[in-house]
Amino acid sequence: MVTFLNVKVQDGVWLVLMVLTLGNAVIAESADPSLFVTMIIATSVALKGRLVLERFMELRNAHPYIRVSMNLYFFVLPLMIITVYLFPEVIADMTRL
Amino acid sequence: MININTITNRETAGFGDQCPLIPQKDGRIPGNGAVWVGIYAEMTEFALMFLFYFVAKVQYLELFDQGPLKLNTLAGTLNTLALLTSSYCVAKAMACVRMSRLEAAVRWLWGTIACALFYLLVKTLEYQWNTERGIEPDTNLFFTVYYYMTFNHFLHVAWGGGAILWVIFQLKRGAYTADNHEGMEAIACYWHMIDLVWIIIFPLLYVLR
């Protein structure tokens, strides 16, 4: 159920999502690769995903299986982004045919 | 009867967490079970693509370091803004339907269609821009992954837009009400899934190096 209160929250969430996206674009155009930059991007992915899941898709009221599994997606993917940046050679060795 | 359009904190005061106007954790399945089978299937498909991206990246670090620099970041950013806004429009439309504001819901969904068309146009122009610079699917592995992932997503936006048009049609013929809108909610969830996937694709292909 979405209410008047939620509707106002959705406006704020949209604004945050716009700012995060523009921030990512600035990073893409200006910053050299580094662990710090990678972590900012990974955090941004996690945050944007969670905001859409919880506030637009309204999973915060949904069945826990759906809520947890979808949120897990946006925990594992950012973690993989950081892991691949930190240990590319280890993963390359593990995945070489 | 309370007009929900004019509800203020005064109306919700005194109810605490049990106020009927504030969402409760009811453990429900948004939309219906069938759409979640589809959503999980799609998310798995894209997860495999992301997995392939990561494996390809560690094997060809230099290609994946240089690739994003050759792409049109402005196009990627505009498309991200468009899809996030489209999701916002869908969420607003859902809120309007629950408040029996059906005409407003239709207007918000036309906003979603406008965002989807904008996305499709920008993506088409981006592919053209790439071609003019000699960037093709077989240029190197980074661009193969880029084209496979983005074109796949492009198709999802196209048919997702078709589903939103269907919702508009159904709304206009009065098929959804404040109490009965399961089908609309299912399609709304599917549309949000399309947005969620792009939230990951954008940094992987355009930002991360």
Brief summary of the model shown:
The complex is a heterodimer of chains A (97) and B (209). Chain A is mainly alpha-helical and 97 residues long. Chain A has helices at residues 4-30, 35-56, 64-86, 88-95.
Description:
The complex is a heterodimer of chains A (97) and B (209). Chain A has 97 residues and is mostly helical. Chain A is 82% helix and 0% strand. Chain B is elongated, with a radius of gyration of 20 Å. Residues 1-23 of chain B have low confidence and may be disordered. By secondary structure, chain B is an all-alpha fold. Chains A and B meet through α1, α2, α3 and α4 of A and α2, α3, α4 and α7 of B.
Percent of residues in β-strands of chain A? under 5%
Structural class of chain B: mainly alpha
SSE pattern of chain A: HHHH
pLDDT averaged over residues of chain B: 89
Estimate the helix proportion of chain B, in percent: over 70%
For the secondary structure, the number of strands of chain B is 0
Low-confidence sequence ranges of chain A: none
Number of strands of chain A: 0
Distance between the termini of chain B: 57 Å
Shape annotation of chain A: flat
CA-CA gap between termini of chain A: 50 Å
Helix content of chain A: over 70%
Key descriptive features of the protein:
heterodimer; A: 97 residues; 4 helices; 82% helix; B: 209 residues; 0% strand; elongated; disordered N terminus
